What does this fold into?
Amino acid sequence: MRVTRAFVPSLFTVLNMFCGFMSIINASRQEFIAASWFIILAAGFDSLDGVMARITKSTSDFGVQIDSLSDVVSFGAAPAFLVYQMSLWTMGGLGMLLSSLLMIFGGLRLARFNVQLVGFDKDHFVGLPIPVSALTVASFTLNYFVPGPGLPPLAATLLPWMVVLLGLLMVSKVRYDTLPKVSRRAIKKEPWKFIFGVLAVVVVMETGGTAMFPLFLLFIALGLVRWLVTNIRRWSSGSAKFADENAVEPTRIDP
It folds into this structure.
């Protein structure tokens, strides 16, 4: 069998899928911390397959499709099963439905992304990227789940709402920035992204990973705030234009 350049990025994609499977296995054994780390590891492989594809110049439609299939497993099914096993099973059928939103909406978001994909380079995503949703769930678990007692009451109460929010954001029209490519041109174009990225890595390492969840919340909130500001400005300009178009000239009455 002849090994081509496309084998290298595909290998990382398969490792991504394998980590998603291992996360599901660990969640079924009530080992939720390990399950969360496998989701984080899957995200690492997911980012590396894109880097390897650019280095080997082997980007292809096949790579896009297999990457999406892996993402459904690692960032859709795995976090959905994790939240159900960890807490939402106590809600019965409603808990099953809420948990499935991470997988169903994540799959819809990936399908929309593939249909709208033009070329292979984008400077933003429409809707919350599915890896960010999964990493938010994983970092939430690492921050608040305690083996034995489980989730604190407040965290258990907020989890269903967080799941619904993440699901809706994935199929929303809220724009989120992509990670910049590591190149001199990209650094000169958007230096603030690299500064924020480096600071985020330093903070996560210094806090032993506990800062990961607040950082993902900040990323999600920034996209929402920008979407709200943009739409408020659009609504305001539209209202002003409508008022100008419908303004009535005052009638002049000659003496």
About this structure: Strands lie at 124-126, 175-177. Residues 7-178 form a domain with the Four Helix Bundle (Hemerythrin (Met), subunit A) fold (CATH 1.20.120.1760).
